[in-house]
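step: validate -> pass
step: tokenize input -> pass
step: predict -> running
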Amino acid sequence: MSEFTTWMQSNWYALGSLLLQVAFLAAVVRFAGEILRTMRASQEQVGALLKLAVTGALSERPAPSTVTERTFLRASPYWLTPTEIPPVGPLELPEGHPSRWTMARHSLVVWLQTPMSSGAAAPWRRAIRWLQAPAGS
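step: predict -> pass
step: emit ->
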């Protein structure tokens, strides 16, 4: 036991570095797994939407059997069945004048899009150049 303690005391920096590298590796593997799961779920949802778009409206599709429906549900917890998709209503536009926040946001965007300078030299720069120029030129 004392040999191990002595070794740890003499190599504490290398041991700490090794533990830190292992922790970073574990974090990278965990986050990579989360990213891959998220990408998989996104691909499955896009696939479901494409399949829905290709087969047509819900009324035109034949009713799926319960066996097929269960197979999809077991394949992925992210699968959206047609009954889970909320109906889309008409877009409601606000009536009357735009709100204060909309006007403020528009003013900010217009202000950000304006050029910072007109391209001509500023008056104080022209005055400094006149002062620095030799007399008579």
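step: describe -> Residues 82 and 88 are 13 Å apart (CA to CA).
step: cleanup -> pass
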